[in-house]
Specification:
Layout lengths: L1 H18 L4 H20 L3 H21 L4 H20 L3 H21 L4 H21 L1 H17 L7 H22 L5
């Protein structure tokens, strides 16, 4: 039922995007539909279809960014789409192919963060990109993962959080756990 609902939503949004090609909101909403459908497809064990949708988003986001290079929302959207492309590739056991998508996402997120270093959300996106690269290198090239993992670890340690911000604190706790798992694998230590 969920997939069918998202298919119907996507069909309507595709019609609107075609009918109003200059309406950036309608174009962006197609990407939103693709994202939700891709997540469901991946959960249903259909990662190839999920990858197609995430790649379609990355292509659309890239075109939108070329049309408006100063559009921060498009840059952020492209970084997100590329990260999801990498996630699906990892899920498919194609980690080597995921690394370029993660690195492209990182480059976009670094530019966004440099433009607004006080923005905690942008910092968390940057941490996410670094962490995914660390994890991927840990899988495919463990001997080269150390510097990438140290970089994300340092960035996480330097992150100052408001003690009342449970959402970011929870995200950072999860990121530390995932980083710990990578370090554990790199050390060959499976201790609990």
């Amino acid at each position: 039922a969920a997939l069918e609902s998202h298919r119907r939503s996507r069909a309507i949004r595709l019609e609107l995007a075609a009918e109003f090609p200059d309406n950036a909101d309608y174009q962006r909403l197609v990407g939103t539909s693709n994202y939700y459908m891709a997540d469901i497809l991946a959960e249903l064990g259909r990662p190839g279809e999920a990858l197609t949708l995430h790649r379609a988003n990355a292509t659309a986001d890239s075109a939108a960014l070329r049309a408006d290079p100063r559009n921060a929302a498009m840059r952020s959207g492209l970084g997100f789409s590329l990260s999801r492309v990498g996630d699906v590739l990892v899920r498919m056991g194609r980690s080597r192919e995921a690394l370029p998508a993660y690195r492209q996402s990182l480059a976009l997120r670094e530019a966004e963060f440099r433009a607004d270093t006080a923005n905690l959300f942008k910092r968390m996106q940057l941490i996410e990109s670094h962490r995914r690269i660390c994890q991927t290198l840990g899988r495919i090239a463990p001997l080269t993962a150390g510097p990438a993992c140290a970089s994300v670890s340092r960035m996480m340690h330097e992150t100052q959080l408001d003690p009342t911000n449970a959402g970011y604190r929870s995200y950072l706790a999860g990121a530390y756990s995932e980083l710990g798992g990578v370090y554990d694998s790199l050390a060959g230590n499976r201790a609990t």
